[in-house]
Amino acid sequence: xxxxxxMPNNKSSAAPVESETTWLNPVANQLDGRIPNRIAVPGVGxxxxxxxxxxxxxxxxxxxxxxxxIVLLGLTLGLLTACACWxxxxxxxxxxxxISVSWADPSIIEPLKPGDFKIYLQTTAGKIxxxxxxxxxxxxxxxxxxxxxxxxxxxxxxxxxxxRVEFKENSELMTIYFTHSDPVVxxxxxxxxxxxxxxxxxxxxxxxxxxxxNELEKFHSEAVKQLETKKENLxxxxxxxxxVDPLLAMDQRQEARMALRDAKAExxxxxxxxxxxxxxxxxxxxxxxxxxxxxxxRGMTGAPTGPDENTLxxxxxxxxxxxxxxxxxxxxxxxxxxxxxxxxxxxxxxxDYLAIRNSKEKLSHIRNLLDRRMEYLSARARKTVxxxxxxxxxxxxxxxxxxxxxxxxxxxxxxxxKELEALTRLGENLDNSIKELTAQAVKTPSLSxxxxxxxxxxxxxxxxVSDLYAKLEREKLELRAAPRITSYQHAELLxxxxxxxxxxxxxxxxxxxxxxxxxxxxxxxxxxxxCNLGDVSRGLGLRVIGVVPHTPKLQQRxxxxxxxxxxxxxxxxxxxxxxxxxLIREAQLNGTRVIMVTSAGFGEGKTSLAIGLASSLARxxxxxxxFDGDLRHSSIHTLFDIPEQPGLSEVxxxxxxxxxxxxxxxxxxxxxxxxxxxxxxxLLSLSRDGMEGIxxxxxxxxxxxxxxxxPILEANDSLLIGRHVDAVLLTVLKEVSELPRxxxxxxxxxxxxxxxxxxxxxxANPEDLCLTN
Length: 773
Known about the structure:
The chain has 773 residues and is of the alpha/beta class. It has four domains: 4-37 and 541-549 and 576-772, P-loop containing nucleotide triphosphate hydrolases (Rossmann fold), CATH 3.40.50.300; 61-90 and 499-526, no CATH class; 93-241 and 448-496; 246-302 and 322-374 and 406-441, no CATH class. 58% of the residues lie in helices and 10% in strands. The chain is built from 27 helices and 14 strands. Strands 7-14-13-8-12-9-11-10 form an eight-stranded mixed beta sheet, sandwiched between helices. A four-stranded antiparallel beta sheet has the order 4-5-3-6. Strands 1-2 form a two-stranded antiparallel ribbon. The protein is elongated and about 145 Å long.
């Protein structure tokens, strides 16, 4: 075992990251030499091999390297494109027919404006292409004879897809185009659609107008007969009235009603004034008593008493209502309207009679106005009471209901008493007048409800007959107008032209073949895959310390769970043993015993190399630990058929010690530490430098520790672990690894001061290493 103190401390001795033109680790067999990493490119900051895009020579090299793929794929795609162009652009026959649409609307009564012509054309085109017209065309005999219904499962939709209707804005001609592979079908369907449109739309609209005129004539005749019947019934009802002139009787009764209504309205107004005067008189009497009591209280206590707010409010409101002329008029109108409704009801008119409905609507409106007026008067009364309450201690200025300025309480009482007597006499006189007018109205001859109903219905019917006759005359006049749409030309075929088909087929083939070839070459150049060892050593300045030939299923064949291998004596094992010899030499010179094996991305041979190096060191008699540091995609426990946990994850979260998780491997001198069960806490512990001291403890028991880590560019785990190892081996897979990604991984390790021992190229020929060296 090598002494532990010979192992350098990578964290403390790591050199700072140098600039873009400094020196990097040596290549090939120069373990301690110094060579230029790369030639700096102005404005690029990377190695010369990564500067710029693919040039002509690179593209030619890519074409030479991928010519088999280009030929096969280019020919395939080119032929497919050529076939698609040939069949897609196969010449199809187009039949066309035309109709004429007049620019001027021939309508006589209401012609369309000239600006509406474009809208009319668009509407007509939509009707031609509608399913209704197409279905009618399919029912025609000439279309049935071409067996279109049997060759297409949905002929209506197919015709609609291949049909187009075109027109020019300044032309009266509209062209119907139909395209089909069969010229007979194209011409027949184009003509059938035109004829179907004329029959199903143009002629139908004209026939509908004729039918409408006939219906209007029928309705007009029936209405005239009904009107004559009602007039005859009205004459019979008038004769039954006993020779009374209906018009004179209606005027007399109307005058009697108006006189009775005015008398009742005046009686209602006088009644309100009586109520107002009586209320004011009662208020004055109460005020006089209140003044007397207040005077007595002032004599006893020396303090005035306040007025009764509710009493004042009611008195003030009554006074305002009685004095408000608008309120009185509205109330009188409401009483008159109620009387009118009652008179209709006494005569036996139904509730839905027009006059009763109108009277009820007017009564409802009057009552709404009364409610609003009452709210206004109530607000005024409250303001008056508030003012009086403010003057409660000044009785000489208090509000007196019905009082006048400068008039005392006793004078007001006397005046109100006289007014009350006069209003009482006037009310009695009005009551007598109402009785007389009522008796006179009863004597006035009245018409029956039947007569009034007939008169009202005759007026309505006369207006309807007049409107119906005017509409009938307009429609008759429109029938004389000339048709706006006429058939212009029967279907013909357009000239067939297949030059476009031939040109598109040839251009499509060569274009796709060329684009495929250039695309494959371009993608190959852009990826900058590593094709030889020189790309690594000279292009990136990485030391190539070994190569591993391509071997299928290398992981399973290097070492199985029984510790057996079927690669003994093969070039693969010899190459791995050669790398092992270099590692032992490096450990003797620099104390490098903890070695991390990683790659830029997935699938570049890092796990196979780690297992191969660990087994090779164990066979050489070195006590070796294979450390699975790939927490996210661990696979070593599966290859060796050992439990996944406890492992590194459990150590990072403190569930166990690192010295307790190592288990015996399938070979002597080989131990294994698995990755364990990954969770969020494990990653957090790793980012908090949870690897501190782990390798120091393990180095006391093992000669070499081979760490299989996560790819550098896929996650940050390898960089966190790499800060604690002695050196890193970067695996590169020929024809898979890409120069920009390998360079990016290299730069990330340099930025953290991680020592990069060199690169191992997998899938390469071992003889190339000798040529490179």
